[in-house]
Amino acid sequence: MTGDDRQVPLLELTDIAVHFGGVKAVDGVSLDLHQGRIYGIMGANGSGKSTLLGAITRLNPLTRGIMRFDGREFTTVRPHAVAHLGVARTFQTVRLIDDRTVRDNVQLGVDTVSRDRRDQLTSTVDEVMERVGVAAVARMRPSELSYGMQRRVEIARAIVACPRLLLLDEPTAGMNTAERDEVSELMRALQVEGFTQLLVEHDVPMMVDVCDYLFGMNQGELIAQGDPEAVVADEAVRESYLGKAAGNA
Ligand SMILES: Nc1ncnc2c1ncn2[C@@H]1O[C@H](COP(=O)(O)OP(=O)(O)OP(=O)(O)O)[C@@H](O)[C@H]1O
Ligand SMILES: [Mg+2]
């Protein structure tokens, strides 16, 4: 990341912590994300990955730390203000409104965008639904769709806001291999357009394939970071995660 290090990071976290009572879900994470790259976070169940995304989107209250977006501190803003900065996410558990159509759910992504950014949106709701493969089901309700399709609707809702930073929490959970490949392809296409992405996934080959840079997380802390192949091969990462994953398989 040598060249990028001289630029102001798009996202800069300094020593952030999220404690739930005695549970140190995130505990002293510092990281920089630079414009246009695809980052991944890998780590065992309960290592704090989703909580970290929740901290960035201000849904999980910080116990300590400082967060900056494009050089400006946003540590204490409200969640909608994070969306206005240009941060969008998908959730690990699908969160769609079931008494609205797929199209309405995707439209909700536009509604999170601040007024002054709204005319900068490059794709319409219909274009995004086409691109993510949900145009044919636009009039259906989320509950009528397979889990994989529901996840696509969530991705569409996130990217229609044309976010500067896209956070994806296990976007391919419940998808088959072909659908997973489509998500990887979509992420690469978004990268070409300049989107910065942070992916949480348990699919290690996908992470190595799609990410430029990986973070290894364990018990609320980052234990490794760097080139994906190196992080996957890292002994502490293997012990905390890959060993367990292999044991579960
Ligand atoms: N709202 C909450 N209240 C209390 N504890 C929480 C809360 N959210 C998460 N935790 C705890 O924080 C720790 C980290 O959870 P988190 O969901 O961030 O892990 P994760 O890395 O996303 O795991 P997974 O791979 O299973 O999704 C866990 O011990 C979890 O039980
Ligand atoms: Mg999680």
* Cofactors, ions, other ligands: adenosine-5'-triphosphate, magnesium ion
Low-confidence stretches: none
- How confident is the prediction overall: mean pLDDT? 91
Cα radius of gyration in angstroms: 17 Å
* Helical proportion, percent range: 25-40%
- Strand residues, percent: 15-25%
Q: Give the number of DSSP strands.
A: 10
Task: Give the CA-based shape.
Answer: globular
| Main sheet properties | 6 strands, mixed
Ordered list of secondary-structure elements with their pairings:
Elements (H helix, E strand, L loop, with lengths): L10 E10 L2 E11 L4 E6 L5 H8 L7 E6 L2 E2 L5 H7 L1 E4 L11 H10 L3 H4 L6 H8 L14 H13 L5 E5 L7 H16 L3 E5 L3 H7 L2 E6 L2 E6 L1 H6 L1 H14 L1
Parallel strand pairs: 3-8, 3-9, 6-7, 7-8
Antiparallel strand pairs: 1-2, 1-4, 4-5, 9-10
Helix pairs in contact: 3-6, 5-6
The structure holds adenosine-5'-triphosphate and magnesium ion.
The site of magnesium ion has 4 residues, from helix 1.
